[in-house]
Specification:
The protein is of the alpha+beta class and 99 residues long. It folds into two domains: 47 residues, no CATH class; 45 residues. It contains three helices and three strands. Strands 1-2-3 form a three-stranded antiparallel sheet, with no helix packed on it. A hairpin with a 5-residue loop joins strand 1 and strand 2.
Length: 99
Amino acid sequence: MEVSRAKALREAWQSAGDSPCPHTGLDAESTESGYFTGRYVCKTCGHHVQVSSRSSRDGPEAQMKRTWSRYALYTSMGLLTAAVPILTVWYKRKRRAEE
């Protein structure tokens, strides 16, 4: 939703009594040329709505668990990536010895 359209919605909502809005539908705010402003706007009333990231909603325990699971995954992937060339050379030498 463009900035000008959000402003028009805000003005219309305020002129209608400025009652509370549940902010059920959100849209990304953009400039007239289509660049994302980094803010989200309610489709009903036009007010800016704070959207929190998933990591801020989770507790520190969930963040720590995610960190360790990523560490384990990336470490195992790194070890596998390092082992593939070694295993390939070993397998080729073994096949040549059998011939």
